[in-house]
Known about the structure:
By secondary structure, this protein is α+β, with helices and mostly antiparallel strands.
Amino acid sequence: xxxxxxxxxxxxxxxxxxxxxxxxxxxxxxxxxxxxxxxxxxxxxxxxxxxxxxxxxxxxxxxxxxxxxxxxxxxxxxxxxxxxxxxxxxxxxxxxxxxxxxxxxxxxxxxxxxxxxxxxxxxxxxxxxxxxxxxxxxxxxxxxxxxxxxxxxxxxxxxxxxxxxxxxxxxxxxxxxxxxxxxxxxxxxxxxxxxxxxxxxxxxxxxxxxxxxxxxxxxxxxxxxxxxxxxxxxxxxxxxxxxxxxxxxxxxxxxxxxxxxxxxxxxxxxxxxxxxxxxxxxxxxxxxxxxxxxxxxxxxxxxxxxxxxxxxxxxxxxxxxxxxxxxxxxxxxxxxxxxxxxxxxxxxxxxxxxxxxxxxxxxxxxxxxxxxxxxxxxxxxxxxxxxxxxxxxxxxxxxxxxxxxxxxxxxxxxxxxxxxxxxxxxxxxxxxxxxxxxxxxxxxxxxxxxxxxxxxxxxxxxxxxxxxxxxxxxxxxxxxxxxxxxxxxxxxxxxxxxxxxxxxxxxxxxxxxxxxxxxxxxxxxxxxxxxxxxxxxxxxxxxxxxxxxxxxxxxxxxxxxxxxxxxxxxxxxxxxxxxxxxxxxxxxxxxxxxxxxxxxxxx
Length: 603
């Protein structure tokens, strides 16, 4: 893609955007995006990841007159098929697609076309003379092309030129309309459910002024660092604290022989979502063309603390064995499309390391306009979850929501808990039905952790973040344990991947009514630490806990004392193998929980 050619065209023609025709090709899309962003242009990729059979039908019905000018695939014959129109070839291309997996739109190089006419053309092209050139006379997949020796342009009827472009249904809107049809009246009902009980003033009073916390680097090359903030900055604004936090992060990385390029996932909590744009302006300067995936939400951080950050790092620790392969790449889509939202900040939609996929948080944006969908909460949830589903499929074909090993859902209203759960369960059920032939036994699903926070980007009501592993979900190991305590109960749910390389541990504390005393704090802390230790041992795998993310209700000091005591308990019990602990205050948790620990573990 020629930068200077685009620059010249931009100056002469007042170009604002550039469209790319890639359906599956990352190479083409990424090149166009890079040039566009350097010039301040908007990249468009409305064919990206579209269903090819539907797309071909749309092109034909839109009066696109195109002929095959090159063929290079099994089932396509230069003598028979060159010069035929897409409309004539459509039934046969469908047959080849179903029988042999041929890309029906030729995205795999099976064929090339030349457009003779379309609604945008003022004149149509007429081929007067052409010759067939056989490039390869292969018995199974001959390669041949047309060489035009004479052609001319011909005027079109005036009414054809004046006719507006055909307006087909928008794939994004069609999907949203289908979701909207399924909304039940109950979703619109007035909130009569649980109200906030913490009397929280939207700000946690206990500051996290401890030094950064690091996990042990595991054999697969992962390490987590948490507790990054900008409290030590002399500049009290968001730009100053962001600079200070990133400087702190760089120091930590340097001390442990890491580099910024090794970061694959960032969790970023801000005190005020209105700082999102200013924060991103500083943040983007520290990352290259393939930034890490990111989750960014508002949390009731202590007064004066504007942000809090933790991140996952990866680099292989052992030399590559002969015959083995390593794979690490980012999915970084910046174009407007009908697929899923472009990134709204300096982050990638997902980061893949071998068979693990770390996704960015997804909110219910309409991909083709990047505006927040205006619909009921159930539709917002469906749209957010479907974005995650599409991202997973784009990173690894056939990867589904059933492959998720850890899932965090952020919402801004407690009344939406039941709705969000119902949508999640419905989509998982649909996934199971779709893959029934592939999974012969019951699949082991990861729990959905839901937390209530003050605000999300774009004023969304739902954001979903997941980590997935490409394994057989039916061969996973899942354990549920509920333990009664003097003050309530502890619920534990673990999911171990089929190959035993990674796992999630979900640990929640449900308190009975009444205020917690000092004795209760000590008892609960010890019981939580014991439950964590038992859960890790029960997995019977040499996994290293990487990040223990503790969501806790801001408010009464006993809860904060429990959280602080839990961190100390884990360090005391596990020593160097203790996880990095990320303490996240939230407005509320469902099911009378006072805290919920979510831990990711890896070999």
